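User: I'm writing a tutorial on reading structure tokens. Could you give me a worked example: one chain, its sequence, then its tokens, then a sentence or two explaining what the tokens reveal?
Assistant: Sure. Here is the example chain.
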Amino acid sequence: MADTIMTKDTSRELKGAAILLMIWLHLFSSEAVIQQYTPLLYFWNGDPLPYVLRKVCSMCVPIYAFIGGYGLAKTNLPHLSGGRHKRLNAIRALTLYANFWIVFVLFFPLGAALNPDVFLAPAQEIVCNFLALSVTMNGAWWFLLPYAVLTLLSGYITKWMYGLAPGKEAAALAAAFALNVLAYVGEKTTVSDIRLVQLLYENVARVGLIAFMFMAGISFAKHGWADKIYGTLRKRRRPDTILALTAAALIIIKMCIGATSLINPWFVFVLVPCYAMAARGPRVRGFFAFFGRHNTNMWLTHFFFIHYIFSGTAYALRYSVLIFAAVVAATLASSYVVDLFNKPVRRAIGRLRG
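And here are its predicted structure tokens:
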């Protein structure tokens, strides 16, 4: 089925929205930082609104994983029969890691100068961070290695899931969700005093944390569910009103019930298609697409401006919107610097496609 709703442009917009959600989440997700800013609005339960909004923003990683699975399914599909997906996905994973290594090399000297207790670690720990096995120098990097692994395997997963009958596909998704629950419960468990063994265990668990949403994205691509829902919705009166009310209701419910990652998928399955189906003006599309083009760099760098290097500096602005805007601006500026090095590297890697 040809894409009419979940296009590449839509995916880029959703990634732009996801990185903004991620930055807000990491700025205001802790009760400890409430004392560092001045809340202007409060939720009905008395909590500061920036803190409550973290429950909505906690959907950022599931959105990334879902869109990643969807997009890779579509791009892998033409190359499955000839096996070319292996080479292309290896190039995608290498491109992601090259981007990460550029960020690491650029920010490590700053970290060593401004936060030596974390960055001037033993050589083994530095190497583990450089490989994204360990994330002691930037907690937001935990997603990198698991996503790279799923990218490498995406062709095989796509071929397998596209060949499954509906009952077996549902069973596979149920098993993936069960793995997600187990990973959520057990990720922080200590299984070994040997550092490398413990890190391998944690990263396997992290693959489990995103595999369900990744596979769900592939399933959405396989069945064209977003397009089917849109086809049905277009027959009704005022479809955009229905979409807006549905999204608003889900967001309010999410703000009321919690931020645990185990409930996020069920909101993403509805909210992502709602965004894709909604009528969006060129300004809205352009705004989110702009940040979507910078999303990887902003993901890899934003935590430095919140905790690991410039710890707490942004909170001096006192007001949540100003704090958020400052961190977004700083990460966006850093993205342009990273791209000075990343673009030629990406072009060089692109030549490997053959």
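What the tokens reveal: The radius of gyration is 20 Å. Residues 102 and 341 are 7 Å apart (CA to CA).
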